[in-house]
Structures are given as C-alpha cells and as structure tokens.
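Lab meeting minutes (informal)
Scribe: AK
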Amino acid sequence: MSQSKNNRNGLLARIHILANELGMNKDDYRDMLEDRTGKRSAGDLNTRQLLNTVNHLKNLIDGPTKQPLERNPGESPQMMKIKAMLMAGGKSTAYGDGIARKICKVDRLEWVSEEDLYKIITALKKQGQRKNWNHND
C-alpha cells in the first residue's frame, strides 16, 4: 500500500475516532461533513478536506475549554443571539466560524457584517429545530 493511501486511511480513521469522541450520531456526522465540505461521506473528501475536517473536529473537542463563548464589549444583539444559539446546541465558536465560512465566505464569525448576521441566525435556527436544541427565539 502506498504512503499516500496509508495517510488517507489514517486521516479517515482519525475523523471517525474524533467524531465518536464528540458523541456524534450518523446524521450529525454527515451534516457536519456537508456543512464543512459539501459532501456527506469522508470517503469522498480530498486530502486537504480530510486534514481540515480533522482540525475542525479537534477544535470542537478542545474549543469550549480553550475558546469560551464570551460577550465582548459593544457586541451586537444579533451576535449575542448567535453565541447563545451555539451554546444551546453545545457548539463552539469554531463551529460558528465554519458556518460563517460556508454562508458568508469569511473565516471568522466576528467578521460577518451586521447586515449578514441574520443569515447565520437563520441557519442556526433551522439546525436547532432539526436537532431539538433548547433555545428561545
């Protein structure tokens, strides 16, 4: 077996191990992959996407202790709502950053324009309804 095939198989295994550590069920796992990559199976990912997914899952595991959801002075009500929704879903700010990348094409949630924050709120609201997150609208 080639080195690149071994590396790919190792990344695939690592993704599944991390997803299990996070307690992701099959639907959550596939939703996360689709949110991050547009694909519902890790087997369809290229090496860069596999590495990014491993890093994302590591951040989800380490995120809440290393990146607490804090309120910044002068933070908008929409951003406070987004952070509350993330907390209700048990998601880290890294997860919010991933949504910002997918929907608004910026790398960090904080960089989403005030005019576009509603898009993030709408996405989180829909996901919360699908996943039965406990948050108030």
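Next up, CB showed the second protein from the same session:
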Amino acid sequence: MTKVLTAAEMRAIDARTIEAGLPDLVLMENAAHRVVEVLERQFAPLHEQRIVIFAGKGNNGGDGLAIARLLFTRFAPRALDVVLAAEPHPQINLLRASGFTAIHNSIPAHARLATVVVDALLGTGLTGPARQPYATLIGEINSGFPLARIVAVDLPSGMNADTGLAGGAVVRADYSVTFTAPKRAHLLGQGLGRVTVAPIGTPPSLMDEIALCQNEPIAWRHLLAPRPAEGHKGTFGHVLAIGGAAGKTGAIGMTGLAALRMGAGLVTVATSGTSLPTPELMTAPLDGEWPITGKHSVALGPGLGLDPRVPEFVRDCPLPMVVDADGLNSLASAMPTRFAGPRVFTPHPGEMARLLGRAVADRIADAQTLASSTRAIVVLKGHRTIIASPDGRTAINPTGSPAMATAGSGDILTGQLAALLTTAPPWEATLAAVYLHGLAGELAAAELTERCVIATDLLRFLPEAIRRCA
C-alpha cells in the first residue's frame, strides 16, 4: 500500500536520497517537471494561459522558480508573473538567466486576470500559523484572482503537513501536486483539491520502515475472489450479532442484514426484539447465555445498552469479534487485559474518548495508543477513518462521504466486518470492510445526494463497491 509520511520523515528521506547521490537541485528540477506536467494536462494549451506563481524562500519557493523557468522557456504563456515573498531562492539566478524578471512582494494589476495561480509559498516545514507577508499573500491567492484555478506545490500554503489543519490563513487549492509520497495532510486535510503524487527519483526502499499507509484494495482484493463452486452456506461463516435491547432492535437488525449482504452464509441475531428487517436472519434471546457454539465471528454492541456481561464475554469468547457502540461503552470502565480471540474495536470519537478517558487529540496517535494498550485492532471512525493494529501497522482510509453521517452507518460497518471476520485474517478483513463501507457511501451520495442517504442505502450500493475493488 502507498506509504504516508510526516514532514520529518519526508525530510529524512530527502536527506538520504541526496546522500545516495541525487543532488537536491536535481530533486527540485524533477519536482518542477512533475508540476508542469500536471499544468499541461489540466490547462492545455499553456501558451494561452495567464499564470501567476507565488514563490517563498525555501525549497517550495525554489520549486516555484524552477516551474516558472520551465513555463517561460518551453511554453511562453500569454502572461507569466512571479511574485517573490522573501529573499529569493538560489533558483532565481537560473530564472533570471533565462531572461525573466520576478517581482518582489507585490502583485501587478494585469496579473489579477490570471487563469492559473501556482502556490509555492510554504511547504511541509510550516508548524504554526503563516506569518507576514505570507498570510497576506495567501489571502490574495484565495480572493484576488477571480478567473484562476489554484495549483498548490506539495500542499496548500498555511496547512500543517502532519495534521491537515491550519492555525491561520491557508490556500484553498483546486489541485495539489506532492512528491514521492502523500503526507498525512493530503489524506486528513481539506481544501487540497485533486491530489497528484509524483515520483522525483527517491528510491522506494527508503520508505520500507514507514508504518502508516493509505488503505488500498491491493492489500485485500483477494478476499473478494470468486467463491468455490462447491461452497455452501456453512462454508462462508456464521455470524452471531448481539444487541438490540428494547426500543433499539433496529440497530442490531441492520448489523445482521449487513453481515448477510457482505456474504456471511448464516447470521443469528441475539436480541430482545421479535421483528427483524429480513426473514433470512435467525434469532436468539438477548437474555441468558449468548450462543457462540457453531458460530465463526461475533458482532457485539449495536443497540445493546450497558451490559455487565460484556467485559467477561469480550475477554473469554474465542471467536473473532467486532465490538461497537454500547459494547465499547460497557468496556470503558472495565477493559480486559487479554482476549481469547482477535478483537476489532470500532469507536466513533465520543466512544473513543470514553475508552481513553480523555478527548481525542491526535487521531492517528490515539488510535495507535489504544491498539497497543488493548492488543485490539482499532477503527477510529470519522472523516478519513484511522485503522491501527497492535503491531504498529496503521492505515488511513480514503473513502467515505458526509452522506454517511446518519443513524445506523456504524451498525452497517459492524455487520460487514463481522462477515469478513468469519473467513479472513482480522487486519485484512478490517481494511476491506472499512474501504468498501466508505465507497458504498460515496456511490450512494452520487445517486441519492448527500442529504438523502440513509444507512440501509449503503447495502444497496455495496455490490457495486465490491465490483470496483475485486
């Protein structure tokens, strides 16, 4: 899967690349070529464009100056202006040698008619709010060019590379072109537009030790292979879904239905209710001993309510288990220190805060902390869901939609995951369930609008999500 870097990791990898014999100016030149290639694809013919490039003093600004030189010498745009925010980078000498004159910290009136603005002010090294004159120039980029599309070099100026957040002014980009590998901000942030990750010569082996990845079907596509012709319902696993106390049976009903739709051969729902959404679901009483004999995985928690049996059951059940909702809330004050089988916890931020005993601060670090301390896989749900394994592997999920912010979406994920846990390794099952869940949400939103999607709509679009990934 694609590795995802922090700013510090990117600096270290760049330094090792330079030590291996690829000079920094060559890396900068390669980066400039990759950005120009994106400009060619998106805005051809470039000789008809009016382009303004904002360049800072660091390597990001150096990239901008190299981009300007390539545009000036190869494409001769209708207009090309370079606005320098600070003392120029050494690359300015190459730009001047080509016969071009840059402007220091001012924007000529004719440049306001630009059709393309290239943001090369600030790169991945920013740790706080953008200072002056950068903050003012960021505001100019956002509002001073009404005809322009904005292309950010590496990431939008003002954005923290590790969090995707901004402490102050930040460029709102239509396109972002980053190099070697995505940074965390490219998955966690907003306002980046369409992101392109471009190689510039860094050996991929330098990223072998990076634990954080982007969740991609290449890691689990084999789970969706055609089923054996001789298979039967017993071949594809029996899920026990536990939840649905009085007044909340809909939640566990959706979990059971999702497990069926994800491919479980059999699903038994232990619930207090008597009415479930489909006759294919078998039932068992919620009171008394939960029947694990003959089952292959457990989904515990949707609609359950706080239940004192949960900590012991989660500790001692030998089956793979996904624990969600009230299952997690029941563990918050009595977390076992060992488990008899694989566990996947799927908290939303509120449930995560109860498990941690504090508010969520850094979503990636907090998910890794909980996974390490509980020895469970942790799925911290939200925009760009975080998946963390006790062994340190961590993935950011790229799929999902605001349309999924509706009651029951998490119950659907729990059922999908429980179905996959019947036959697949827990890490791969979790990656697959989260990705397909998010992709189904995107497909549902595209057809039904973000406003009109309800949780069970995700199951309607799950088959197409599977087809696209298989």
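CB comment: The chain has 14 helices and 17 strands.
No objections, moving on.
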